[in-house]
Design goal:
Blueprint: H1 5-14, E1 17-22, H2 29-37, E2 42-45, H3 49-61, E3 65-71, H4 75-87, E4 94-98, H5 113-125, E5 130-132, H6 137-152, E6 157-161, E7 173-174, E8 177-178, H7 187-197, E9 203-206, H8 210-218, E10 224-226, H9 234-244, E11 250-255, H10 256-261, H11 264-272, E12 277-283, E13 286-287, E14 293-294, H12 302-309, E15 313-317, H13 320-332, E16 337-342, H14 360-372
Bound molecules: thiamine diphosphate and magnesium ion.
Length: about 400
């Protein structure tokens, strides 16, 4: 059963919820966009699930009923404010949790497997009562009434929502208006340009979602470490490699949503200053892998943050020529380099999944071999698109 997002929002408003925050999941593709358009609901697009919960707590302190929407992968990000803010201060909030990797869905991506199997037990351990949504309006209303009972005891409540239970059909919305992004480069084109400029031995760590899938489609090679899950941690992994292995050049291929989620990493990178690190951010001003919900990079200059954090060289690119030049410059000068490239939100229709060919463990093993025993390449060898 699939409930229309409009109905779900109507029921939330009927129960006097007036404040919404969260981080998107593809199961919530419509929800974030509809809430952004809704005049009766204040919506805050948070950079991480922990801050979404904290925004909601602030709103609750100010007297508003608040909802936080998150994927279960974000449970790790909320546990600190959930236990040490919400629970000790008895400030009840409603959590709408999209459950990926449910034990009934063994075909879901491997990064969801462990959290998918542990979500219910984790909530039990945390003493957060929960209810599984059945996909019907009556079922949703029944879970909201259970939440009311929990709130009477100043306890938060979680509604668990499965894939396909909420409608997901809208396009891209920015500041409440439908829009087409008009940057000339797609992620695929930008990655081709980056790949052409790199050396065959350069190591790449790519962020979770479509960026890794585009890289895999374009140029699968053992020097690529594809992050699956762990949103926001790609640049720290790349910087860790760069610091531990100063003779190898390491490229972090990041997304705007990922950078925003753990932006403190930029300060650590500026501080530790790995000379062999190139941090490329493909900024499409949205969470495109989960349906194109707007990210706050639309009103933030991530490149200015990188400058302030102490990266040695920072560029902002819009065209292919600018991107090619920025990546080429980073080859001949010391890093850490930060290249922000504005990209549009289009992708090829059928993006293969990395896991269709390599399990995460196989990818790790191949990457470690490529890192520790670099392959030799002829001078004229194809730059980066070398088959595995
Ligand atoms: C902690 C956490 N929260 C939410 C998600 C769901 N998620 C997967 S990819 C993604 C979008 C990332 O956006 P961005 O880094 O800008 O890359 P894009 O999809 O736009 O290429 C989100 C929100 C997740 N994997 N982990
Ligand atoms: Mg993005």
């Amino acid at each position: 059963m699939t409930l229309s997002t409009t109905t779900l929002l109507g029921l939330l408003k009927q129960q006097k919820y007036a404040f919404f925050s969260g981080v998107p999941c593809s199961n919530f593709a419509d929800l974030f966009q509809q809430v952004a358009l809704d005049n009766d609901m204040m919506s805050v697009p948070a950079a991480s699930e922990g801050s979404a919960l904290s925004f909601a707590v602030g709103a609750a302190l100010a007297g508003q009923r608040s909802v936080v929407a998150l994927q279960n992968s974000g449970l790790g990000n909320i546990i600190n404010p959930l236990t040490s803010l919400v629970q000790i201060n008895c400030i009840p909030t409603l959590l709408l949790i999209s459950v990926r990797g449910h034990t009934d869905e063994p075909e879901d991506e491997p990064q969801h497997r462990i959290m998918g199997a542990k979500t219910h037990a984790l909530l039990d351990q945390l003493a957060i009562p929960w209810s599984e949504f059945d996909g019907t309006p009556q079922g949703f209303m029944a879970t909201l009434l259970k939440a009311e009972e929990a709130f009477q005891r100043s306890v938060s409540f979680a509604i668990l929502i499965r894939k396909g239970q909420l409608s997901t059909s809208l396009g891209v919305v920015v500041n409440g208006e439908q829009r087409e992004s008009d940057y000339p480069l797609s992620v695929g084109c930008a990655l081709e340009i980056v790949s052409e400029s790199l050396r065959p031995t350069d190591l790449i760590v790519s962020t979770t979602g479509f960026i890794s899938r585009e890289l895999f489609r374009l140029s699968d090679r053992p020097e690529n470490f594809y992050m699956q899950g762990s949103l926001g941690h790609c640049s720290a992994v790349a910087a860790g490699i760069a610091l531990a292995h100063p003779s190898r050049r390491v490229v972090a291929l990041d997304g705007d949503g990922a950078v925003l989620m753990h932006m403190g990493v930029l300060s650590t990178i500026g501080h530790t200053s790995p000379r062999n690190l190139l941090h490329v951010v493909l900024d499409n001003e949205g969470y495109v892998s989960t349906g194109g919900q707007t990210s706050t990079s639309v009103t933030s200059s991530l490149e200015a943050v990188a400058v302030a954090c102490g990266y040695r060289a920072v560029s902002r690119c819009v065209t292919g020529a600018e991107l090619g030049e920025a990546v080429a410059r980073s080859l001949s000068t010391e890093g850490p380099h930060f290249v922000l490239c504005k990209v549009n939100q289009s992708h090829s229709r059928s993006l293969p999944r990395v896991t269709s060919q390599h399990s995460p463990e196989e990818n790790k093993r191949a990457f470690q071999i490529a890192l520790n025993q670099p392959r030799t390449f002829h001078q004229q060898a194809a730059p980066v698109g070398v088959a595995r």
